[in-house]
Amino acid sequence: MFDAVAIVGATGAVGTIIRTMLEERKFPYKTIHFLASKRSAGTSLEFAGQMHPVAELTPEVFDEIDLAIASTPDEVAAEFIPWATERNCVVVDESGYWRMNPEVPLVVPEVNPEAVRGHHGIIASPNCSTTQMVLAMKPLHDAARIKRVVVSTYQATSGAGLAGTRDLEEATRSQLAGTDYQNEIFAHPIAFNVIPQIGSEKHAGYTSEEMKMVYETHKIFSDESIEICPTCVRVPVSNCHSESILVETERKLSVQEARELFAAQPGITLLDDLSAGSYPMPHACTGQDDVFVGRIREDLSHQNGLAFWCVSDNLRKGAATNAVQIAELLVQLKATAV
Questions:
Q1: What contacts 102, CB < 8 A, 6 or more positions away?
Q2: 234 near 190, Cβ under 8 Å?
Q3: What span, in angstroms and rounded, lies between the C-alpha atoms of 73 and 78?
Q4: Which residues lie closer than 8 Å to 260 by C-beta, 6 or more apart?
Q5: Residue 157 to residues 9, 162, 232: CA-CA distances in angstroms?
Q6: What pTM was estimated for this model as a whole?
Q7: Which domains does the chain have, with CATH numbers?
């Protein structure tokens, strides 16, 4: 058990879910601390039936904290995490800043839990679109080794933060009312539209979000030979990312074998009955911690190809749930080391 646990970014959307999950899952701690920006400092949050003050994120607050779960912008993580590690505080980091650092494990607990053992004070959680894809890939890769992935994402506006959700809601109201709306965060209208760009232009016409999926997948599987072709699209859905995934494996996987592999994989819920209209959809997956898989079918164009559809709550498994699961792994590791 860690004596003093902190949530950094405790007042944000992901931080709020982390607080709820720690309480629901009875995460072990002696004292808990909530940290946020100067703007939120001085407010109070309810946790486990008691009110707790929110403290400003400063170097000194880590003097008495030995585990922090953090959901902050990249630039904040770049500044504060060295403060924490210098004071022997272990940080589970949701930001993108440390993910590709070779000294920092990038972990999805159902996929590569052993990587946690190699940490030097920081453990990174992947990008939300990567997290659900690698979890869906895991049983197929173990059984038949995935050689190539073609993935198209349908990403919810909540992935762009509270401002993204406001853009969807307000732009939809405005369009229905025939009035103008000035986008807060998106470069193009999101209401009744899709935007085939998430992130900045990065490499050979691919965006930063797309390249995250490539680099992070390689790191998590420790296999840079997996070929990945991603297209990331923002859609007018408030929560839950959806992905259409086509994998090519070394040996052929039948649909039935794939169903059995998915059904046996921890963290995956199988919903795959086309005739009954049963398949994953954002509306039904919101608030859930699993990755949902369905529409499994053989690739008509390649004998070793398999196509499927997966949906996951990007604020939960894509962020908060994965971070809390990493923290739970650290507690187990600490217990076995005693």
A1: none
A2: yes
A3: 9
A4: none
A5: 20, 8, 13
A6: 0.95
A7: 4-126+319-337 (3.40.50.720), 130-314 (3.30.360.10)
